[in-house]
Amino acid sequence: MPSREEAPKVNAGSMADIAFLLLIFFLVTTTIETDAGLDRRLPRKDTAPPPPVPERNILQVLLNGGDQLMVDDALVDLVDLKTMAIAFLDNGGAPPESPYYCNYCQGERDLQSSDNPDRAIVSLNSNRETTYGVYIAVQNELVGAYNALRNREAQRQYKTDFTAMEAKYADAKTPLALKKELKTKIQSIQKLYPMRLSEAERQ
Hints:
single chain, alpha/beta
């Protein structure tokens, strides 16, 4: 009786090793792009109704469906927004006898504008038709206004920019003792110019 020839066996061990090495190669060499966004701390949910705010302490910023920018019902260009926000935040309109008097503000001290940076609120409203890029550009200008004022105060008090202190604090290589010192300085500047940026839901 003739013997059956056994089919040759394929050694799959080496093929598995090659596939594993290729997988590691692609994992190591592939770069994963991440979308850039804005660093924001979301406010805590508060069920209590907010206290009434005088109209002079609110800067109304509106983006309509045509990407047109309005500040207090007047059409403005994006390049002017940062300057207008700085003037509003740094106005210091409260009189000297008021508990809200700002002795470090360098604004016009217009009685019809904000009393104090701690009471000044920037209200940003947008339309559903507003393009995302324009919305982010407006946010960047408003954040830039806060940073400009914070940098000015940090230079006056500590001879360095506020943004530089933040970057140094976030650096993992910064010693713990220096981080503690930076945190105190950062919080002191933030207290002078708190970021009160209110973003309403898109309509």
